[in-house]
Design goal:
The structure is a single chain. This protein has 449 residues and is α+β, with helices and mostly antiparallel strands. It has helices spanning 2-15, 17-45, 80-87, 138-141, 165-172, 221-226, 248-270, 281-287, 296-323, 325-337, 342-379, 390-416, 421-425; strands at residues 57-65, 70-73, 91-98, 105-106, 114-121, 124-129, 131-134, 146-149, 160-164, 181-185, 191-199, 211-214, 238-242, 273-280, 433-437, 443-448. The strands form two sheets. Strands 1, 2, 3, 4, 5, 6, 7, 8, 9, 10, 11, 12, 13 and 14 form a 14-stranded mixed β-sheet that branches. A two-stranded antiparallel sheet has the order 15-16. A hairpin with a 7-residue loop joins strand 4 (105-106) and strand 5. Helix 1 (2-15) packs across helix 11, helix 2 (17-45) runs antiparallel to helix 9 (296-323) and helix 9 (296-323) runs parallel beside helix 12.
Length: 449
């Protein structure tokens, strides 16, 4: 039975090679665009979802109220995060991550301002962006997959550095990086740092790091560790990991109690009203309004464009299928005269549509894979089809096959099978419209194209 339902659609496609080619490649191009935009949406929505217990991770946001407005800053004063860790039982771990103070700022064409540190290993000397100072608790809060070293102890000792795989390869080639000493200048003199770990850059994160150096290293970081300012100096991005089953509102109240205990006098002296709030890390990239416009709106626009492209492809398919109605009308009229049920004919025509769509999906998936490098250039992304998103890609292709097959095939199926066999065989069929009749001969639906 299944072979029969496959043979009939394939035979119909082969009889109408030109129209079948136009239908298939028209759909394939629309599906290619939809798949690429779906991958873009998946990539945008995947930021910081890979962390273990991601729903327990928060960024501390500083809210400074004046008479006219409230300024929200995605950072806070240096001592706040660690004091909260000590005084609030619901806080399991805390970490501070910041750009090294005093590192020179560089501008490159078409890029945002970047912080660059000077790295040297033997004769290999170069500037590297995206280097951060971090507390030893960094890997207690955030999840990184290590290829060398152990996360728990990687940043415990002063002058320790953890490198990305890309940077480790740039410094040492194929040789192991663990234990080697590199010279790093982060706004001061060059110091030797021991490589204590190498991590994979396989996930999207708001923290785009090439390397992390230990916060307790001598130099400019000592100012951060010894700073006891609670009212001002809100320049340190700080993150908390709360215990499972926590109450966010209750924790926010407790961290503000900590702030008042230590900083009320300083805030009064400076004449500011400062409060703290918690922002889920997994929501920062798309939904945060701290220092940016929420990106989620752009994602809705991209999704709407994808659906519009798919709708246009389906309408084009329906128009081309309906244009073949004159040639198919006689065939369907004869089959109805011979006793074929309308339901059987509808299933056949829907089957033809589904076969067309499946072929278009296969071609579209191939074209999407082929055009990914160009798409990445246009969108400034590094999207690839890999083990992390292959399931999503296949599900997206399956959803497109079902949606497109039903949308594109339903109208031609119901339209073509509505013809009255007697009128068609007498040559009185009018392809400009159709009417479907009830059993008593009265029309229940009339539609003119």
């Amino acid at each position: 039975m299944l072979t029969k339902y496959l043979k009939l659609p394939l035979r119909s496609l082969m009889r109408n090679k030109v129209s079948s080619f136009i239908n298939i490649f028209g759909l394939a191009l629309g599906i290619t665009c939809c798949l690429l935009l779906s991958l873009y949406i998946w990539d945008e929505a995947s930021y910081d979802k890979h962390h273990k217990r991601a729903s327990d991770l928060y960024r501390i946001v500083t809210n400074i109220r004046s008479e006219s407005n409230v300024d929200r800053i995605g950072a806070t004063s240096p001592p706040i995060a660690m004091a909260i860790k000590e005084e609030v039982p619901e806080v399991e771990a805390a970490v501070r991550i910041l750009n090294p103070p005093g590192v020179k700022q560089y501008f490159t064409t078409g890029e945002k301002e970047k912080v660059r540190s000077l790295l040297q290993y033997k004769d290999n000397l170069f500037y590297e962006s995206d280097g951060f100072l971090a507390d030893s608790t960094l890997f207690d809060v955030f999840t990184y997959e290590f290829t060398e070293g152990y996360p728990k102890i990687a940043l415990v000792q002063p002058n320790s550095v953890v490198l990305s795989e890309k940077l480790a390869h740039k410094l040492f080639g194929e040789s192991p990086a663990l234990g080697k000493i590199i010279d790093i200048s982060q706004g001061g003199k060059q110091d030797g740092y021991k490589v204590t770990g190498v991590f994979k850059e396989k996930y999207n994160s708001i923290i785009k790091a090439s390397f992390f150096t230990s916060m307790n290293s001598p130099g400019s970081t000592e100012k951060v560790l010894n700073e006891n300012e609670w009212a001002g100096q809100n320049f340190v991005p700080s993150y908390l990991k709360l215990v499972p089953g926590h109450n966010k509102a209750a924790v926010e109240k407790k961290i503000n109690d900590v702030l008042l205990r230590h900083g009320a006098a300083a805030m009064k002296a400076e004449g500011i009203h400062k409060t703290l709030s918690l922002e889920p890390v997994k929501d920062i990239y798309l939904q945060s309004d701290v220092g940016q416009r929420p990106r989620i709106g752009y994602l809705y626009v991209v999704g709407s464009i994808a659906l519009f492209i798919l709708l246009i492809a389906c309408i084009n398919f329906m128009n081309l299928s309906t244009a073949k109605a004159t040639r198919r009308a006689t065939e369907i009229g004869i089959r109805k005269t011979l006793g074929a049920l309308r339901g059987t004919l509808i299933r056949q025509i829907l089957g033809e549509a589904m076969v067309t769509v499946v072929i278009a999906i296969i071609i579209g998936a191939f074209l999407a894979r082929l055009s990914l490098p160009l798409f990445n250039q246009l969108t400034n992304k590094a999207i690839s089809i890999n083990a992390g998103n292959i399931t999503f890609f296949l599900l997206a292709a399956l959803a497109l096959a079902i949606i497109t097959g039903v949308l594109a095939g339903s109208y031609p199926a119901f339209y073509l099978t509505s013809f009255q066999p007697a009128r068609v065989l007498k040559g009185k069929f009018n392809p400009g419209g159709f009417s479907a009749y009830q059993g008593n001969g009265k029309p229940w639906l009339c539609f003119n194209l």
